[in-house]
Amino acid sequence: MTDAILTLKNVAYRYPDGTPALDNCSLTVRRGSRTAVLGTNGAGKTTLFLHLNGILRPSAGQVLCGDNPLDYSRAGMRKLRSQVGLVFQNPDSQLFSASVQEDVSFGPMNMGLEEREVRTRVAESLLAVGMAASADRPVHNLSYGQKKRVCIAGVLAMKPEILVLDEPMAGLDAAMQQELMSVLDQLHAAGMTIIIATHDLDFAYGWADDGIVMEAGRLLAQGATTEILLRDDVQMALGGAPLIAEINRRLLLIGIDLRDNGYLPRSKGELLQAITAQTRQESTP
Amino acid sequence: MLNALSHGRYISGTSLLHRCDPRTKIILALIFSVIVYTVHTPQSLILLLLCSFGIAQRAGRPLRHSLRGLKPIVYLASITAITHLFFGGGPALAESGILSFVSRDGAGRSLLMILRLTVLINGTSLLTVTTTPLTMMDGLQWLMKPLQRFGVPVGEIAMMMSLALRFIPVIVEEAKQLLKNHAEISRDFSNGTMLQRARSCLPLVIPLFAGVVRRGDALATAMDARCYGACAERTRMNPLRFSSVDILCGGVVLAFLSLLMYIDCFLAGGA
């Protein structure tokens, strides 16, 4: 078994009206990694995600899950969609049941699971996203952040190995973003591979291990976020650099190196910690 | 009118009707609809109306909500009533004046028609108010199962119906938002002649329609992503089961409707 859980080999895709959406894309997602997919609007992030789940079939090239090319038969799709869970950006266009637990049960019921198994999975996934107490609440009474969590629970109930989220932080306030982040961290700690499309460079730099940068349907860069997000061409394509990376760079220019065990800070918390440690060091006689 | 459309949406609760199996409720709603069009006297219809208001209240739907839910039929009821009033045939209400154009039989029939529509809308909305879309879908699917033998895609039809029910309030909300965004259109929408109002609706209807298509597309993709259609037979978390509540509700409603039919025949015979 290879380290790659998902692979795209020279994938191209054109929409039925002829608009090219993906062009010769080759990339890999590592098993157990946290991967951020970055790109401006229209770069092809959502189209890429729809290929990972088998909703779209490439016009050319191949998508592999593990070592095997995707099987687009009914049985193959059932297996793939329970392995690769896809959460869309807008929760209002995904939730259609009256109550939270009814909605979460939709996926497992489509998989033909037994009543008892469906109940267990619904309870477990609601617990995982911190919505167990709201199981019987009507969906239309939930806040936007809660709806997003229910969407994630709906996908988790299918027990996927890979969770793919399309701009999960969009429309959430800072507190809700924190809540969602901790849910994702827990899932990752439990061994899940998480792929997130985002416009937030600071989030990608601080949270993701790997980054995939798309530009006009093509793969521009792939690798560790701490490396690729510092590249000029990537910063040009994304319209900026992560704030923490920029602070690190400026501090290095004036001779302040915040490196701890060879690593520069990646998030606001780490940066503040490094500055405090540096200040203490300097003030110690 | 937009407010009124969203009033048939599910209200969570634990009333007897809420606990009833959806199949029982659908069958009772069908029988109720037939009875509404079978009874002959206004007294019977008024009794049915009062009972449906009472049951709605017990199910957690306040009276003013039930009344607001009747708004959409005001136009239809008015047109029907006017048609009956002036073209009903038979003797006139008076020998001279405007009442000489009004048919006496037509007046009676239009009163019955308005009452029938009101009872029908209020009574049958109890089904959607006390049944979640998913259980409604399960109930419909079960009831339509015999059609599967003839190749009818029963599961898909039931899913379409439940999605339509679920998204009516959402679309109403979108329409309200559009009206708010286009205050100018909103003014035109409620003023002017019928033709002017219809014309002014266009800028509202087109984006609304586009929005519905977009939403439908997104929903279909999201359902695909969650394995919809991947298995020949979906399972259920809460399999449908008839219980003593169904026997109680079904028995009481059928006994009441039978008694009502008897009284109605008696009253109609007496008249």
Short description:
The complex is a heterodimer of chains A (285) and B (271). Chain A has 285 residues and is α/β, with parallel strands linked by helices.
Please tell me about this protein's structure.
The complex is a heterodimer of chains A (285) and B (271). Chain A is an alpha/beta fold. Chain A has 2 domains: 4-240, P-loop containing nucleotide triphosphate hydrolases (Rossmann fold, 3-Layer(aba) Sandwich); 242-285, no CATH class. Chain A is 41% helix and 22% strand. In chain A, the strands form 2 sheets. A 6-stranded mixed beta sheet of chain A has the order 6-7-8-3-9-10, sandwiched between helices. A 4-stranded antiparallel beta sheet of chain A has the order 2-1-4-5, with helices on one face. In chain A, β4 and β5 (68-69) form a beta hairpin. In chain A, α5 crosses α6. With 271 residues, chain B is mainly alpha-helical. Chain B has 2 domains: 1-131 and 241-271, no CATH class; 155-238, no CATH class. Chain B has 12 helices and no strands. In chain B, α3 (22-38) runs antiparallel to α7, α4 packs parallel to α7 (104-130) and α10 (183-190) crosses α11. Chain B is globular, with a radius of gyration of 22 Å. At the A-B interface, α2, α4 and α5 of A face α9 and α11 of B.
Defining traits:
heterodimer, A: 285 residues, alpha/beta, Rossmann fold, 2 domains, 6-stranded mixed β-sheet, 41% helix, 22% strand, B: 271 residues, mainly alpha, globular, disordered N terminus
Cα separation of the termini of chain B: 38 Å
Shape descriptor of chain B: globular
Number of strands of chain A: 10
Q: Spans of chain A of 5+ residues with little confidence (pLDDT < 50)?
A: none
How would you write the strand order of the largest sheet of chain A?
6-7-8-3-9-10
Instruction: Give the total of domains of chain B.
Output: 2
Q: What number is the mean pLDDT of chain A? A: 90
What is the fold's blueprint, element by element?
The complex is a heterodimer of chains A (285) and B (271).
Chain A: E1 4-14, E2 20-30, E3 34-38, H1 45-52, E4 60-65, E5 68-69, H2 74-83, E6 84-87, H3 100-104, H4 106-110, H5 115-128, H6 144-156, E7 162-166, H7 174-189, E8 193-198, H8 201-207, E9 210-215, E10 218-224, H9 225-228, H10 232-238, H11 243-253, H12 268-283
Parallel strand pairs in A: 3-8, 3-9, 6-7, 7-8
Antiparallel strand pairs in A: 1-2, 1-4, 4-5, 9-10
Helix pairs in contact in A: 5-6
Chain B: H1 2-5, H2 16-19, H3 22-38, H4 42-58, H5 63-68, H6 74-87, H7 104-130, H8 133-144, H9 154-181, H10 183-190, H11 194-225, H12 244-270
